[in-house]
Amino acid sequence: MSPSPIQITSRQIALVRTSLTHALPHAAALAELFYARLFELDPSTRMLFPPDMNRQGRKLVDMLDVFAGDLTRWEVLRPAARRLGARHADYGVLDAHYGTVGAALLWALEQTLAGNFTSEVRAAWEAVYVLLTNEMREGSRLRSS
């Protein structure tokens, strides 16, 4: 594994990947729960998305799947996360939105995985989310400078 600014253990990677595998059969429900919660927590985020959320939901699940698959390949993951952050900046995403998105994602995963979303799984997702959003934020900063 390439070096990263935050150490994520192989156990955390396995927990994220396994829990995502359990959530993927319920991908549409996961995405629907995520966006409903996001817009509930911060209604202003709704304007950042297209009117038809079906395609957006699929993009969310695909992105989670790709990022989870690349957690051991930092040299691939880091630039991908930074590019996504730069695109988000172009759409009007603010730094403060990342906290709301994280809260909505964790809540949606908890609802989807129910009893399989243990405190250890939650902590693994939190660690991965922090790692990825730090890189997305950096991509946004690099874009604006």
End-to-end CA span? 30 Å
- Kindly identify the CATH topology: Globin-like
Question: Helix and strand string, N-terminal first?
Answer: HHHHHH
The CATH architecture classification is: Orthogonal Bundle
What this model shows, in words?
The protein is mainly α and 145 residues long. The chain has a single domain (31-144), classed as Globin-like. The chain is 74% helix and 0% strand. The chain has six helices and no strands. The protein has helices at residues 10-23, 27-41, 53-69, 74-91, 97-113, 119-144. Helix 2 packs across helix 5 and helix 5 (97-113) runs antiparallel to helix 6 (119-144). The chain is globular, with a radius of gyration of 15 Å. The model has no long low-confidence stretch (mean pLDDT 91).
Quick rundown:
The protein is mostly helical and 145 residues long. 74% of the residues lie in helices and 0% in strands.
